[in-house]
């Protein structure tokens, strides 16, 4: 499908740039994997900068897609410049949108982190506690996931092209999992973070029988105390009893699972209270 | 009860094979990627059909109302067009347990309330239904709900016996289907085996709600279980799985999906859940069940009080899917009995 007239929000075919901060660049790669759908998007925008996909670069752009975390003072300045140039800033993936693996380093002092990673060269490298792009500048749109959830990416691109806002979904992965009629991985004896994790991924992990790792971050009002109770019950019904006995997770182990994608700001199990009771 | 016949195991195999050749058939089949777990899905061959199964994650209502259902497509051309998405193909739904048959009838009643919903009865009219009897697991509690031996809406009903199935012919359409099958008259021995199967079903049922639906509704109407609702809510994720697996839940949400560039799209409705925080969020930002325990209480009141008063029976069939699906281990029987116990303790 092609659109003849200019897109209302921009008044012209907008120019798009992709930028990466500290990350694995898997989100860019995922977007490239859209293939035919990507061609459809290219009918509506001109890509002017995309290091992973093309040689040309431009400092002029209307829309910036930014992936990765901000981990140096130089990053802070760079993302601010991008924000200034771009009319629309879209954060791509959990590193940029809410927090991801990079924030795990924040549990240690920056000196210790530098020493462990760079050894003798530690003094030549500067670093700051890792944070998502959204902790430094405002984003107009956020796409979550590790890597980025493509169904949500398409929804956001659509909203962006038509000048609409987009609210990230605020339901747990369980909803999409059930609507797809997948088997609950708890029934297979696995521990899944789906009940507390923001959906929008169309339950892609449980589709293949893998537990949700929580890559899209906690939904609002995620009931973490309920998860502690559920995973540590001494007496439970058959299905949960099997899970609890098999895994025997301590508070620390449960916190460690949750921290992987939720360590910005630093994740504290004791303070993780749902906000609606 | 209608005519009783016998279909042998081999006879059933060839009957379902012919049925599938004749038109689409949905029934319980083993999941390809997750062996051992059964789901309702379209069958390609009789060999895929698993008539002996305990339960499924989501109920067979999906045959008539898919979890995500397009209602119409639209194009913003001049003039704009709207094209209804209408399925017209007749199909057969097989392997439905008595509790789920009861649930389908409950949904018939719910969707017939004014303003009547049009898609559900249209889908129901396209389908023939073949029920099958089952044995319970520890989550089933249909015995006290009158749904244990129900045949509502089934055209044929099968009860497992030694040489195959005792077949009850319940409607003309059911009798018509049997032209695809070699059946024999049932003997007294066949009938006795079917009766023994039904006895085993009730004898193996371990879970039950300790009050009649009428008493339970009265207890809930008196509701002063604030503390208990808060305790249950403290364990509840509000994940909605109790609703999305429920055979009698009928709430849905409607959204428009646009194609890129806003030149067209489709209107989709999908199953919704009153346990989700945004379910009762309305324009202006007010949420009349924002707090978790209010939503937990609402579920019990809805199932066992409001709909009991409206339709004369609780909107629960005792299938136990919600308890199986609850990873927070909130069991509908345990919570209900706790409520009943507290109410009686106070009396």
Structural description of this entry:
- The complex is a heterodimer of chains A (277) and B (347).
- Chain A has 277 residues and is α/β, with parallel strands linked by helices.
- Chain A has 11 helices and 7 strands.
- Chain A has helices at residues 26-32, 36-42, 73-85, 94-97, 110-118, 150-161, 173-179, 204-207, 224-232, 238-247, 251-259; strands at residues 15-20, 46-50, 63-67, 69-70, 88-92, 131-132, 141-143.
- In chain A, strands 2-1-3-5-7 form a 5-stranded parallel sheet. A two-stranded antiparallel sheet of chain A has the order 4-6.
- Chain A is globular.
- The termini of chain A are far apart.
- With 347 residues, chain B is an alpha+beta fold.
- Chain B folds into 2 domains: 3-204, no CATH class; 213-346, no CATH class.
- Chain B has 11 helices and 12 strands.
- In chain B, the strands form 2 sheets. In chain B, strands 3-2-6-7-8-9-1-10 form an 8-stranded mixed sheet, with helices on both faces. A 4-stranded antiparallel sheet of chain B has the order 5-4-12-11, with no helix packed on it.
- The longest helix of chain B is centred in the last third of the chain and has 20 residues, at 292-311.
- The radius of gyration of chain B is 22 Å and the shape is globular.
Biggest sheet descriptor of chain A: 5 strands, parallel
Looking at CATH, the homologous superfamily of the largest domain in chain A is NADH:ubiquinone oxidoreductase-like, 20kDa subunit
Spatially, the strands of the biggest sheet of chain B line up as: 3-2-6-7-8-9-1-10
Distance between the termini of chain B: 42 Å
Mean pLDDT of chain B, nearest integer?
95
Helix content of chain A: 25-40%
CATH architecture of the largest domain in chain A: 3-Layer(aba) Sandwich
């Amino acid at each position: 499908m092609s659109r003849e007239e200019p897109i209302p929000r921009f008044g012209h075919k907008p120019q798009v740039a992709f930028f990466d901060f500290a990350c694995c660049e898997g989100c860019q790669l995922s977007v490239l994997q859209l293939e035919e759908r990507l061609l459809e998007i290219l009918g509506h925008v001109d890509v002017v900068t995309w290091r992973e996909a093309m040689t040309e670069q431009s400092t002029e752009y209307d829309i910036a897609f930014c992936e990765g975390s901000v981990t140096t003072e130089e990053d802070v300045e760079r993302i601010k410049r991008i924000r200034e140039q771009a009319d629309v800033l879209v954060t791509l993936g959990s590193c940029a949108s809410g927090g991801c693996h990079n924030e795990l380093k924040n549990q240690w002092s920056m000196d210790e982190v530098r020493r462990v990673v760079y050894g003798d060269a530690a003094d030549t490298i500067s670093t700051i506690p890792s944070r998502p792009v959204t902790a430094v500048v405002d984003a107009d749109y956020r796409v979550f996931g590790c890597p980025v959830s493509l169904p949500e990416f398409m929804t956001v691109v659509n909203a962006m092209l038509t000048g609409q806002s987009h609210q990230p979904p605020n339901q747990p992965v369980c909803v999409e999992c059930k609507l797809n009629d997948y088997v609950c991985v708890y029934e297979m004896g696995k521990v899944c973070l789906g009940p507390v994790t923001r959906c929008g991924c169309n339950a892609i992990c449980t589709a293949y029988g893998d537990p949700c790792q929580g890559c899209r971050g906690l939904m609002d009002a995620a009931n973490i105390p309920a998860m502690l109770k559920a995973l540590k019950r001494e007496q439970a019904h058959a299905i949960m009893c099997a899970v609890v006995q098999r895994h025997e997770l301590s508070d620390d182990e449960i916190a460690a699972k949750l921290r992987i994608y939720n360590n910005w700001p630093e994740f504290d199990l004791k303070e993780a209270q749902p906000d609606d009771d | 009860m209608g005519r009783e016949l016998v279909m042998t195991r081999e006879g059933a195999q060839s009957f379902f094979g012919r049925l599938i050749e004749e038109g689409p058939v949905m029934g319980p089949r083993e999941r390809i990627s997750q062996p051992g777990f059964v789901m309702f899905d379209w069958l390609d061959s009789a060999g895929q059909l698993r008539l002996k199964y305990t339960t499924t994650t989501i109920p067979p209502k999906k045959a008539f109302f898919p979890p995500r259902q397009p209602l119409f497509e639209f194009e913003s051309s001049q003039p704009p067009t709207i094209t209804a998405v209408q399925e017209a193909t007749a199909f057969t739904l097989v392997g439905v347990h008595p509790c789920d048959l009861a649930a389908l009838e409950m949904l018939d009643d719910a969707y017939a309330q004014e303003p009547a919903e049009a898609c559900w009865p249209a889908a129901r009219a396209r389908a023939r239904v073949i029920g099958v009897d089952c044995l319970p697991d520890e989550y089933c509690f249909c015995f006290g709900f009158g749904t244990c031996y129900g045949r509502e809406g089934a055209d044929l009903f099968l009860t497992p016996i030694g040489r195959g199935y005792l077949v009850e012919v319940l409607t003309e359409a059911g009798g018509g289907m049997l032209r695809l099958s070699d059946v024999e008259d049932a003997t007294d021995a066949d009938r006795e085996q079917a009766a023994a199967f039904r006895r085993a079903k009730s004898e193996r049922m371990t879970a039950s709600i300790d009050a009649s639906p009428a008493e339970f509704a009265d207890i809930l109407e008196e509701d002063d279980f604030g503390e208990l609702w808060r305790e249950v809510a403290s364990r509840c994720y509000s994940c909605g799985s109790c609703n999305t697996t429920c055979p009698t839940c009928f709430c849905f949400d409607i959204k428009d999906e646009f194609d890129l560039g806003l030149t067209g799209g489709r209107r989709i409705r999908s199953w919704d859940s009153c346990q989700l925080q945004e379910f009762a969020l309305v324009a202006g930002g007010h949420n009349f069940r924002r707090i978790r325990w209010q939503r937990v209480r609402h579920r019990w009141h809805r199932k066992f009080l409001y709909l009991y008063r409206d339709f004369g029976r609780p909107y629960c069939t005792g299938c136990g899917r919600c308890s199986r699906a609850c990873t927070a281990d909130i069991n509908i029987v345990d919570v209900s009995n706790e409520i009943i116990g507290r109410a009686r303790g106070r009396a």
